[in-house]
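Chaperone protein HtpG structure dump, as promised
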Amino acid sequence: MTEEKMRFEAEVSRLLDIVVHSLYSNKDIFLRELISNASDACDKLRYEAISNPDMIAGDSEFKIRLMTDNVRNVLTIIDNGIGMNKADLVENLGTIANSGTAKFVEAMTQAKDAKKSVDLIGQFGVGFYSAFMVANKVEVITKKAGDSQAWKWTSDGKGEYTVAETEMDGRGTQITLHLNDDSKDFTEEHRLRHIVKTYSDHIGIPVVLMKGDGDDETLNEASALWTRPKSEITPEQYTEFYKHSSHAFDEPWKTIHYQAEGAIEYTGLLYIPTMRPFDLYDPARKGHLKLYVRKVFITEGADELLPPWLRFVSGVVDSQDLPLNVSREMLQDHPLLTKIKNGLTKKLLSELESSAKKDIEGYNTFWEAFGSVVKEGLYEDYTNRDRILKLARFKSSTVDGWTSLEDYVSRMKEGQKAIYYISGEDVDALRRSPQLEGFDAKGVEVLLLTDPVDEFWMPSVGQFDEKDFKSVTRGGADLNDVKADDSDADKKDDADDKPVSDAELDTLIAAIKIALGTNVKDVRESDRLTSSACCLIADESDMDLRMERLMKQHNRVDDVSTRILEINPKHSLIKKLSDMAKADAKAAILGDAALLLLDQARILEGEALPDPVAFARRLDLVMEKGLGA
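structure tokens r here:
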């Protein structure tokens, strides 16, 4: 078969240039990444060999070998793992940042500093390509276990690669790096020894330096880190294992290493990251934990180990009680997995509860990154709902930073019976929402919710500490029973602040109803507005405004329902309109003004106007009359 030349996925050549020239401050990282990939390949084959021992017949001792040639400036990394076929090569080495190259390149280009660049690549999992930092050319020769055909992948990292058939003894993968002039020292034994000891000592597969004289040297301890006593593991080793097992580049926020004993026995080494994994919001919601049975790798991302709302947690779980030949299909219904899942979840919740009390700043940073995912548990995990609810943090209309529900309840006003909230896309926009004016005037705190998941868990949960959750954009948010702050109560009534009389307001409301017709469900006086003329709210029995918009975006409802228009009887515009209605309730300009009020309220809600041309015409007319006066 002739050599086949292929181009990388679009924009990859640009990405490789970023990787080579601006990504890493420490070039040693490339070897850690290649050794991690080799270790993963051995783990995968070890699992496959449980059901098919012939796959490792004649070569059952897994190892990763390093070979150097300081004359040709070549470094070779060889493993006897599962290997790759042609399709695997194209998918794994021909497609960088599989989750979205264009998005990755855009993020990398906008990164302002080296640290941010490293953080970003850690999110997109392109560690193999760090090899091009030190190599002018990379050759990969590989043969998948059980296949007879080997393949050779070659690239100089400038936009193209070739794939061709080749010969190879045995299975596995051999990566040959033709080092550039600035990287010749990576053929030196002491340099390789230091890198492996620093970054890969935790790997449970021997990393062997081949010396050619038969006096080969194993460079790492080659025992699974989670099996060692905690007292013998340094923080640096924990961190390096996190980066190895998660293919991450950030520092873990929390490291949890413990052994469960009793009815079931298992060891857990869990990490809570500081940065969001790139696939955190992937619809598949896959986990990041690896399952081992007596140090034999079984599967990665097992949903049976943690609920989806903890999918950002990475690490390993090693069970002593599961059968060694357990299949991935059997895992779904295995009762021991359910017990392990419950144990891991409780352990993580306890760790988060402790951090929320002892490390408030660190916990708030964690919540900033992962709170939107944790809140999925409020909707899905009924068993742990109360504990998650106490862990939840929110932005608020009256306090800076994050607040808990317990703190909110402790600040509730006299006569306040509900926990009020408003939802939208942006915190600053929510703070300016007209629906908040009456609450602000009485000093009533309102939670500001910006995550789409809030629309689902709020109605599902319903209460906290026997206090109902109530949206300020729906009817029924009665503030009459809430005692205002003393500073507000002492204020004298201003003549200009007096509302229109009830009779005049009734006349105006009737005129507006006629003008708007079926465009609104009702028109009523508002007790929530203080400085705005009007706002839209949902009826108490209707869906919340933002929830309905989300449902419409996903084609779950055909159209938004009609809303209630509330008007502020103390506003100067409403007073003038009331005077006009008193003089002539059928005046044409009154109808145009009513439609303008409705469009104004729609704009404040972030909704598109149904007829922008008519809005502009009416606005011109009203402005012309006003200027003429």
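The first strand starts at residue 4 and ends at 7.
lmk if u need the other ones
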